[in-house]
């Protein structure tokens, strides 16, 4: 069993990005600028956005954090998005999810200009991804593909099973793994809460990607020997013995499954760090694609 070290790979990617930024600075060009919109005071969202801002500084990007109250109206939030859409100094931006219940997330994502949608959630970018065209790929699936590539894990002709069908992870990774590309060409099965006899599918997986959000859902009895496990789930579980009051758990029961896996991502330290690294990579791409820069 080999651990897929997302922290190490993400740092390698950040180093590569920093070299490109240093080259831009040396030639007196503008460095990439990423903005993040945070609505409300959700603890996990504050942590994630803080990590993104720190990562921007690490690679030499400019960054802007726009904090808005949870009581903001949908129309006012769209006005803030329009400002970012029309700000030529901002190369790309994200709206941190989840949003308060009174705001329609789909409307907000649709309001972001596709060329600044570095999260890759806009239908224009999602459609391009599905057609295997150059575009912004959602950061978490993008990170998974990069891990598979950098660990030289064979995907062509393999059976990949994806647990979960969200538009953020499950659906895009199923498309990417099935596409004609490096770290693609898999036969993909997507299973979800309505799938009957789910274990029948997981036991046949050469590569299992779990993006379910249920702590330790995947047990050793659900997988075959030498499976590659990509655990996307990350859930805060209360733990009074921990100084933070919680510990992070993945979808996979790591201790029981690790002895069956050929490769496995830990939680934390697996897919999570890659999400931020690939968001930075998308921002660098948005800078290079902009006609105004």
Give structural notes:
The protein has 293 residues and is an alpha/beta fold. It folds into 2 domains: 28-113, Rossmann fold, CATH 3.40.50.10860; 139-272, 3-Layer(aba) Sandwich (Rossmann fold). The chain contains 10 helices and 11 strands. Strands 1-11-8-7-5-6 form a 6-stranded parallel beta sheet. Strands 3-2-4 form a 3-stranded parallel beta sheet, covered by helices on one side. The chain has a two-stranded antiparallel sheet with strand order 9-10. Strand 2 (33-39), helix 2 and strand 3 (62-68) form a beta-alpha-beta unit. Helix 1 packs parallel to helix 10, helix 6 (139-150) packs across helix 7 and helix 6 (139-150) crosses helix 10 (271-289). The radius of gyration is 19 Å and the shape is globular.
Quick structural summary:
The protein has 293 residues and is of the alpha/beta class.
Number of domains: 2
Secondary structure category: alpha/beta
Q: Class of the largest domain, according to the CATH hierarchy?
A: Alpha Beta
Major sheet strand order: 1-11-8-7-5-6
Q: How much helical structure, as a percent, in the residues?
A: 25-40%
Q: Could you give the order of the helices and strands?
A: EHEHEHEHHHEHEHEEEEHEH
CA-based gyration radius: 19 Å
Distance between the termini: 46 Å
Biggest sheet descriptor: 6 strands, parallel
Assign the CATH architecture of the largest domain.
3-Layer(aba) Sandwich
CATH topology tier name of the largest domain:
Rossmann fold
Approximate shape:
globular
Q: Can you tell me the residue ranges where pLDDT is under 50 for at least 5 consecutive residues?
A: none
Average pLDDT, rounded to a whole number, is 95
Number of strands: 11
Quickly count the helices.
10
Give me the oligomer status: single chain
Percentage of residues in DSSP E strands: 15-25%
By CATH, the superfamily of the largest domain comes out as NAD(P)-binding Rossmann-like Domain
